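Exercise 7b. Backbone tokens:
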């Protein structure tokens, strides 16, 4: 995109709805060195975005943690859903001295070697299967790297201990399955690879993973 539109500003924004706006920003310019994922960068004023694991704040590069957000933009919770509110709007795990409500995003991030915050994957998209920890986002990234793939989504059925990969694009299912064998280890390979004409969407236009999981379990159930 930068090569095609050299005079355009490109800014990567990160901000969950629960934070009522954007929380982090990263501007890509000619001096940026991007090794892998585009960072989400630095927090906006009056926002504190930090990583936590094992009860402590992470600052060193390469170590993963849960992204927490605190500041003036944090919402009061979910309407008429106290249980869900209490799950993610929690006391700051780094502060035991006074009431300090922060938002647990459920996102996993890390700092890169330049000290920039990078979003990695959703905490609930990491599974354990056959003794291996697997990030579904890594399977999606591998599939997305294949020419002709437009969009992909991986879901995991705990009921059948199976991974299903849904995608839209030019390659046929056997072709995509064969390509994935060269990109990911055997324990990460999906049990089902299914081509769709269109990816199902929720009311918020996000990929409807619940619908895809339901479809997966129907298929596995025969």
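Sequence design result:
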């Amino acid at each position: 995109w930068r090569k095609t539109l050299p005079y355009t500003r490109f800014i990567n924004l990160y901000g969950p709805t629960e934070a009522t706006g954007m929380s982090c920003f990263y501007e890509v310019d000619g001096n940026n060195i991007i090794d892998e994922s585009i960072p989400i960068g630095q927090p906006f004023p009056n926002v504190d975005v930090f990583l936590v694991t094992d009860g402590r704040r992470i600052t060193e590069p390469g170590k993963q943690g849960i992204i927490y957000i605190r500041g003036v933009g944090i919402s009061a919770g979910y309407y008429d859903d106290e249980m869900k509110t209490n799950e993610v709007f929690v006391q700051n795990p780094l502060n035991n001295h006074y009431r300090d409500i922060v938002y647990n995003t459920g996102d996993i991030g890390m700092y890169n070697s330049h000290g920039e915050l990078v979003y990695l994957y959703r905490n609930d998209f990491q599974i354990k299967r056959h003794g291996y920890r697997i990030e579904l986002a890594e399977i999606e990234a591998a599939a997305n790297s294949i020419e002709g793939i437009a969009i992909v989504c991986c879901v995991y059925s705990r009921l059948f201990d199976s991974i299903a990969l849904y995608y839209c694009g030019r390659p046929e299912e056997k072709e995509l399955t064969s390509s994935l064998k060269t990109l990911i280890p055997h324990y990460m390979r999906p049990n089902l690879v299914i081509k769709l004409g269109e990816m199902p969407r929720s009311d918020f236009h996000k990929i409807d993973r619940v619908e895809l999981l339901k479809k997966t379990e129907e298929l596995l159930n025969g």
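Instructor comment: The first strand starts at residue 10 and ends at 14. The mean pLDDT is 91.
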